[in-house]
Amino acid sequence: MKVTAYIFLLFLSLNAMAQDNIYPAGKQLGTLIIANGTIHTGTGDVIRKGTIVIKDGKISKISEQPESTEGGTVIDASGKNVYPGLILPSTDLGLREIGSGVRGSNDYFELGEYNPDVRAVVAYNTDSRIINTLRSNGILLANIMPEGRLLTGTSSVVQLDAWTWEDALYKADNGMVLNMPLLMKPLRRFGPPPATDPVSEDLKKIEGLKSFFKEAKAYKNTSDKQETNLKFEALKPLFEKKQKLFVHAETARQILMAIDLAKTFDINVVIVGGSDSYLVADLLKQNNIPVILNTLHALPTLEDDAVDQPFKTPALLKKAGVLFALNDDAEEPRYRNLAFLAGTAASYGLSKEEALQAITGNTAKILGIDDRTGTLEVGKDANIIISTGDVLDMGQSVITDAFIQGRKINLANKQTQLYERYKEKYQL
């Protein structure tokens, strides 16, 4: 009874802390002009005191010269930096709210080994309080991935200013998600050894996955189907190369197995995690397989690796010609430090503009949305952030303005509200 009462009070407190006065912006109207800012295009170019003209949610002009402001709304970005909106490439944002504490707030994990028909986006909660904390750190788009055991379902890209998941949808079902088995014995300091060999069991899982893919491919090529198989139907876009297979893999042997899947079934693969990707960078380049590197602020995967290896890996992939993006999957700060991870990479071999590309343009290419966003170019969506300082530097970055498809969004969140509340209370 006490437990029931506690959970009831917890949900009451969550409702009391809702961000009721923060809601999606309306459609952009008229002409918007961002003037006099230092424009970082996300392509490697920097325009000093440039101008961006936005109409109907799109970038209509980028100029190094001042533009006429007649009839337009002007935002003076003098002394500020203008960037493409940042993109979080692999996350459970909107699917997991309070971790393992309150199961009712989470919808990210499906039972069973093979769930290709699961669509993560339909469970996406646009009212999540975490979303607004990401926007105030410059993150405007995110790729929502389901979790599970083996083949977990499809991911989708969402924009972070919406009433419903349908409004949020930016690119639907862009990828299929796979958790590659570990393929190594877990470290055990105490207790008896496992009854079965973990590596052998993992190899059996992979063989089972290959058999599943073979059956799905045969189903796809069958014209006179007697019945509909929803799981096989869900895999059609993968075999038609309309989707990519996002493979969560950290170690070299896991990555090699992912490369084998790509070659065996002629599918497009993306490595997610990839802490050992620098060891097989040449193979990744040869097979045109990009990498999404998870949180750099972590210890290396293996004990023999250099302690600063995660910081150096982006530069090594860049040198090898591998397309890569950076991701923040840290649960404690809840993904908001994406820009600062790029700042770390810029201290270990990347230039500032290359590091910026790893959280904007490169990410858009990997997610298949680079025709619409990721860089500041004419014709693309006006997904833009403005910062008082270097957005990659935690000591300088303060996001003053953000636009999603030209709509100026509210950068307040529950934390800024509490800051203002107690600043007033204590007259600071």
UniProtKB/TrEMBL annotation:
SUPFAM superfamilies: Composite domain of metallo-dependent hydrolases, Metallo-dependent hydrolases. Residues 1-18 form the signal peptide. Residues 343-393 form the Amidohydrolase-related domain. GO terms for molecular function: hydrolase activity, acting on carbon-nitrogen (but not peptide) bonds. Keywords: Hydrolase, Signal. Pfam families: Amidohydro_1. The keyword Membrane does not apply. It comes from the Bacteria. Gene3D superfamilies: Metal-dependent hydrolases (3.20.20.140), Urease, subunit C, domain 1 (2.30.40.10). This is Amidohydrolase. It comes from Niabella ginsenosidivorans.
